[in-house]
Amino acid sequence: MLITSGREKIATARKVAEIIDARFIDPEIKRFPDDELYVRLDTGDEAGIDDDVVLINNTYPDGDLVETLLLLGLLKDLGAESTTLVIPYFGYARQDKRFKAGEAVSACSILEYLGHRADRLITIDLHAPSVLDSFPGEVLDITAMHALANRFGGEGVDMVLAPDKGALARAETVAKDLQVEWDHLEKTRLSGTEVVMKPKELDAGGKRVLIVDDIISTGGTIMRAAGQLKEQGASWVGAASTHGLYTGGAIPKLRDACDLVVSTDSLESETSEVEIADVIADALSGS
Ligand code: R5P
Q: Which of 22, 96, 111, 127 has a CA that sits 20 to 30 A from residue 60's CA?
């Protein structure tokens, strides 16, 4: 098996190759003066690739999506036996349905395009795994929740919360690993301007509470929840997410609202304390 990647995921791909003892092909990727991308894979063999290949790359930001498309095309062109595409952070995941008439269902369109060149797809904590039906080949959505739970093992967490009911399964996974209780937050509108967010069944009073989510984007959801949990008496609030987008300079604001903010390195940031490479390597080696 050969492993390669786009520029942003080189460190992750190298580490995966090391863990599963596969050969890593360093991609040559640069931009032409007009900013168009150039990609090349030096396989050391004029005849091309006579092996199964794993390509690890995000589809966010857009440049990485183009890189992924070019690399997938190149792998087919070089004769790869099969191509497994691993997307640590799948951009466009949240445009998973037509919210308004005439809108593109971007997640599904992109998966269809990727399916023309990739045989198998692995995603990580995909926002809405149902969109994987748009990918024609074999699909697998793996989770970083166990790895995140492991990071919070020594933090004395008493309760794990999902920001909404839809994310409860992720909170349950982390809570079971930490052997604590779990719940989801429920919003109650008190007036036109006042909304209370509280755990549906449990009481956060005096507890060390960890909120887990697939994506933190502006951080608004977590900041509101953390503020309200502290008002309800939580003694400590942590936030864990697989994908830390942190748009609009969210990290300092989140750190003001929470006692600890951790994400994986599916997207690199100062909070990327959990390496996604181990999670990917486990999936590739079937454990
Ligand atoms: C939405 O359903 C996702 O799971 C996240 O809760 C959402 O993307 C977080 O967004 P933000 O950080 O902007 O509140």
A: 22
Ligand 1 centroid from CA 127, angstroms: 9
pTM: 0.95
Q: What is the mean pLDDT of residues 197-202?
A: 96
Domain boundaries, the chain: 2-143+276-285, 145-265
**Cα gap 170→161, rounded to integer Å:** 9
How far is ligand 1, taken at its centre, from the CA of residue 221, in Å? 6
Q: Give the residue, out of 99, 161, 216, with the most ligand 1 atoms within 8 A of its beta carbon, to mutate for a pocket test.
A: 216
- Maximum C-alpha span of the chain: 69
Index of the ligand 1 atom closest to the CA of residue 218: 13
Choose, from 76, 187, 230, 253, the residue flagged as catalytic: 187
Using CA atoms, how far apart are residues 263 and 270, in angstroms rounded to an integer?
A: 9
pLDDT in tens, 209-230: 999 999 999 999 999 999 999 9
CATH class of residue range 145-265: alpha beta
Let me know if domain 2-143+276-285 sits in CATH 3.40.50.300. no
